[in-house]
Every structure is written in structure tokens, then in C-alpha cells.
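Input chain follows. Return C-alpha cells only.
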Amino acid sequence: MKLLKTSDELISHMKEKGIKFDIVKEDDAKVFLQNNNYYMKLASYRANYDKRKSDGSYINLDFAYLQELSTIDMHLRYLILQMCLDIEHALKTRLLKDIESNPKEDGYDIIRRFITKYERSCYNIQKHKSSEYCRELIEKYYPYFPVWVFVELISFGDMVKLYEYYMERYPRRLKDSELLYSIRDLRNATAHSNCLINKLQRGTNKPSVKIIKFISNVDGIGVSMRTNKLSNKFLYDFICLLYVYNEFIDVGIIKEKRFKQIKEFVDGRVIRNKEYFNKNECVKTAYIFVKKVVDYMNEPC
């Protein structure tokens, strides 16, 4: 039984759903689907558009709009992943530095206690024992890892757990870990090339008080916009990323560079074809919200 549809069949299916090919012609759309994207991923951005109640077809949706959103998303993932990696490095550095200065820790005891509570972290390390990049470290130390080795072998999720575990044992020695799970979610999504901006509508996310207070300081964002946009999982996680980056990354060239890159992206590539979204309040207001926060974050820089 044939499961995969040809490009012609996909184009016909999209036309049946009300998707137009006025800006990007059908032949060019076929090339894009064949070489740059696959249908299910591209089609996911349809969720940002309303449907007619009569027949379920999409209102004011051209293939070009989906193509543009997918391209913006790709560039955004690259920027976000770099920022997540910077935060991961900062977490490791801060944790190791504090353990080194902590007279109650020797770098081994904390890991023995941690893996007793989180046995799966060792199992996750073992899954990578055949990797040429970490095989020697695993063979040499398993299962009695010093912390400076352990942090090089664990996932970002386990790194967040370790950081949180250390804070529970030694309160107020490190910065709050409350928002780090949002960073973990973003890192995982970007590392696996998941779509980020395919669902920008109001959602059910419950924002932290810390982020609510942070956004309340941004000019031009009222209670209604703040409540609406922070209820969206991606928009909330992205704001958490900006906030955590500002908190955890020391002032310097890298920090200034990342915030500048985000601002240039928001002020440049994102609005290259802004006329595509003139009639889409969901996309437009999400952009306005993000731009106001990005501009606010760039003020100190």
C-alpha cells in the first residue's frame, strides 16, 4: 500500500484545504518540498491560521506564508541552540567553581549521592560508552565519577537536575534554578529540529511569578498582552531563555554578541516579508511582543 504522497498529490491536497499558490507558484513549491522541507513539518505552521466553519478550508493562507514561517523558524532554532549551549557551559562552570570553594565537598561525594537518587543518569551515561568522544572517560571512572568528569558526560536535563540537587543541599550558594527546565525544553526542541513557531495562539501555560514581574517592566506590554503571550509555551520558554541568559552569562563580548544577534534577527530577517502576515493577528502580535522584550534586553548592552 502506498503511504507517501508525491509532490503533485501534496500540492493538490493543500489546494483542497484552501492554501493558495499566488506568491510561490506550484512548480517552485514542489521544488521547495523536495529539497528544503517535508510536508508534515511545513504543514504544521497552518495552525497559526483560522479555518472557515463551512468547509474547514484555511482563510488567507498562501504557501509562501508557510514557507516563510518555516525559514524563520530554522534561523531561530540556530540562535536559540547557541544561547542554550552558552547557558549549559555557564551552569557547569558555576557549579564546579562553587564545589571547589565548598569545604563540605570533595567533588566525589556529591555525585555518589546524586546517582543514588537519580540512578538513570548513570544508565544514560552507559548508553554512550561506545562513543569515541567519551568512551575513555566512562571506562576510567564509571561509576565513581568526580563532578568535573560527570558534568562532561551527562545530558543537559541531568545537568539541570544536578544543579538543582546541589542547591537543595547548599541553599543560596548559586543562582535560582526555577527556570532552567524551560531552557532544557528549548534545547531539546532545537537540537531535534522541532518546530517552534507553528502554534503561536494563546495556550494553557502557567508562567512563573518571576517572569510575570520581569515582563511587567517592559514598556508597551500591558496586562492583556502579557497574560495572552506568556500562556503560549514557546513564547514563554523564549522569554525564559532571554531572562536566564541575562542572569547566568557574565557581561562580556559573548553576551553582547548574542543579544545583538537576536535583535538583528528580529529587526531584519523576521520582517523581510512582513506583508505576508498583515492579516494574521496571531503572528503579528507574537512578533510585537517578542520585539518589545528583545529591545528591552538590548538596552543595557
